Amino acid sequence: MTRLDGKVAIVTGGGSGLGRAISLRYASEGAHVIAADVNEAGAQETVRLATEQGAKADQVVARMLDVTDEQACSAAVDATLAQFGKLDVMVANAGIGTFGPLATLALADWQRVLDVNLTGVFLCAKYAFRAMQDHGGCFIATASVAGMEGTPNLGAYGPSKAAVIQLVKTIALEGARYNIRANALCPVWTNTPMVDAMVAGNPERGMERLRHMVPLGRLGQPEDVAAVAAFLASDEAAFLSGIAVPIDGAHTAGIGR
Q: Could you tell me if residue 248 is inside a domain?
């Protein structure tokens, strides 16, 4: 047996980056996974990779999902219940960023980041909570170390992730009576398409600067985050709820970097 045998999970943003790594790890641990993404082709590629790595037929399912669309979030949960009979884990991972100083940040960009990164997590939580009330479950949101400290040029992204951490604490308190746990993942700079886009102007210099900010001397890998997400979704973490977990190579530990 593996840690997630018999569990059913939805992973938003499952078509790339952290969401793909989490989907693949969950499948390898025995879970049924709905890899949901606004990029359906990316989600289908996650299914292909999972099958290539040994997932059973229909163990991983692709679904197109825009997390800012309330009806779509409700429908994704309903479809999961119809296909698998339950929902055990919701990973609200879909997120976007915009890079630049506050003084030049467009209101539309600010709002779009909040819509995806915060409202999207709220909508996932709203409908997952309803599906889990009868039997308990696990809610995981991808936040960031940028939500735990100020970060220049991430004036929309950081506040959105700080709000996610607070929302997760609220979900944990409201969910406790139903045995619904809620926790937040807080990665540091990780090798994902989002970070690649941030350093696109000068990748070599940009990556070196980011590595210098991590005491362990490297960027995170998606698999680092997926490993923590698998633990939090498992019964081994049955008494962990309401926490924000830095996955950061000691970045938030102090001034050593």
A: no
Positions marked active-site: 157
Residues in the chain with pLDDT values less than 70: 1, 255-257
Contacts of 92 (CB under 8 A, 6+ apart): 12, 67, 120, 121, 124, 125, 139, 140, 141, 142
- Establish if 108 belongs to a structural domain: yes
Residues 15-46: tens digit of each pLDDT:
999 999 999 999 999 999 999 999 999 999 99
Q: How far is CA 161 from CA 32, 116, 194, in A?
A: 27, 11, 15
Give the number of domains in the chain.
Answer: 1
What whole-number distance in Å separates Cα of residue 206 and Cα of residue 42? 26
Cα separation, 36 vs 156, whole angstroms: 24
Residue 32, domain extent: 8-243
Measure Cα distances from 75 to 71, 123, 144, 205 in Å: 6, 11, 28, 44
pTM score of the predicted model:
0.95
